[in-house]
Amino acid sequence: MHCCTDHDTWSAVADPEPVRKIWRALGLPGIVDVHTHFMPRQVMDKVWRYFDSAGPLIGRPWPITYRADEQRRLQALRDFGVLRFDSLVYPHKPDMAAWLNQWARSFADATPDCLATATFFPEPDAGRYVADAIQTGTRIFKAHIQVGQYDPTDALLDPVWGAIAEAGVPVVLHAGSGPTPGRFTGPDPVRALLRKFPRLALIIAHMGMPEYSEFLDICAAHDNVRLDTTMAFTAFIDETMPYPASELPRVRDLGHRILFGSDFPNIPYPYGEALTALTRIDGIDDEWLRKVLHDNAVALFGATDPTAAADQGVK
Fold first, then answer.
1. I need a labelling partner for 18 at 20 to 30 A (CA). Which of 200, 245, 277, 290 fits?
2. What is the pTM of this model?
3. CB-CB neighbours of 164 under 10 Å
4. 3 state SS of 89
């Protein structure tokens, strides 16, 4: 289950040139991907089994393109020219987040190009382990409202959001109702959360799909809210949740608040399609692409090593 992509298929989907060609043409040293998943092996295997079963939270067949062992996946990202990425972990039940955070901390310590990542769940000790994560250098959090099935304004999370807001650590928040709605998904819980904690630095995953317009509103109204492009604009998503053409002018105007994300390795197409889809957005120019693929993330997380793509990946 863990590593079953055959050699020829892997060679095709891990070919770095289609990706590198795009960022080279923009004069970039590489790209930053704020939405990637690395997890303990047993957790990743369970996630992949869920995708394989097209479970209720998925809602459609969803083949995993980059099903391979951890080192192979890391090398693929580096070969693509990804200078910095993260290990977005997330719990679906209590008494899981602290353990995931310990694993993610160790992973980041062993993987210098990975932003130290952590997560949380509404439970009595959440405030403690989130404070510990911040103290030990967490650079980004992941919150998955759909999978966790919790209200982000749950009182148990008040100390969590308060500490995160005070520290200014960004949170990749899956709050949109795609691919299938959850009990607490959608823009209204996020609006309520921001009323309580207006300083939160949120990165709304998947451009907020399918509530694209509402999450554009939220982003425009809050200086610390950003959007990530994860899976949006691709042919796979356009089949069921296409981005409204009427909102593309706002997407262009908010280019300074949008970050590139891929959902690697859990994507049903080659990595390069995520970048190609962005280049095909009507009216998008090179400046917008440079901001989204690299500059905005550097402004948020700090400078990347421009030699990293060459040193750790292909020459």
1. 245
2. 0.95
3. 27
4. coil
